[in-house]
Design goal:
The structure holds 2 protein chains of 2 kinds. Chain A is mostly helical. Chain A contains 3 helices and no strands. Helices cover 75% and strands 0% of the residues of chain A. In chain A, α1 packs antiparallel against α2 and α2 packs antiparallel against α3. The chains are: A mainly alpha, B mainly alpha.
Chain lengths: 102, 239
Amino acid sequence: MGTLTTNHFLFLSAALFIIGMMGVLTRRNILIIFMCVELMTNAVNVTLVAFARETNTLYGEGFAVFIIAIAAAEAAVGLAIILALSRRVASVDADEFNALRD
Amino acid sequence: MTLDAIVFYILAAVCLLAAVGVVVSRNPVHAAVFVVITFFNVAAIFVMLGAEFLAAVQVIVYAGAMLVLVLFTIMLVDPDNLPELHAGRPVQRVVGVLLGLILLLEVGLAIINRTFTAPTGNATPELIGLVGGPAQAMGYILYNQYALPFEIVSLVLLVGVIGAIVLALPERLGEQFGLRRGTISLGHPRGTEVALPTGPDGEAPITEADRKETAALEGTRELILVRDPDKYTTVGERR
């Protein structure tokens, strides 16, 4: 409580990351799993910016910009894969994608 | 409690509640709306941390472009396949929540026990204000020290866009341009020892013997047709 420290932001980012992780581990809809991965990258960005502020540097923010750019590319490719998969298997359930096994 | 802290707690609470909403919502469209709320709150937290440029990028790229992409995908996927009332198996849920709580404990202990790093840089808010603001400072960093990574990231984005187009291309489109798909069946009734008779275009024509054979096998096992192009994985293109 009281004044704001870096630890506040770190705790927020940890909570956000773990909520996203729980979503990835428990859900079966790949669209929601994808959104949870985005939540996790966002949490990492918060950590980087918080440390950048604590050390009075800009490198953390630079890293966050690169992460956002890579996340955009990942979103494009990931959603295209989801689209192609849903066309082939006619489902977005992660448990249905077992073509290598059967 | 300072005003800063109050604003932070409100933002953090809304952010975490929306994140929980993403995980528990059954409809992916609702999840997408919750994700937007989370992204906007994270952008506000970036503003609190003095990263205004990053907050703008967050809103434009995440809340703007990426969510449109997600919603497009949700709409393009067959709506009958969307609802997921069964959110994972019970074992999966218990293990997921347990692992999450253990990780939260570990990270919490690490955060509490860490020592504060002394400020090493000179990018104080006053100096950034002198340079002309956070956007100018970020531009200076990106185009000086990070110039090469910046170019590489642009290349990654280009390759990602091309890959996305190739992946999302309808498979029937290739046939219009004269590309034929070769399909294989590992479960063909005749097995793999028998050499298939080849027609003039390299394909196995369906002969009268084939029909008799498949008719004889009917009922004994699941009948699989070699020629059905939608059932099997594409293994390659043939001229």
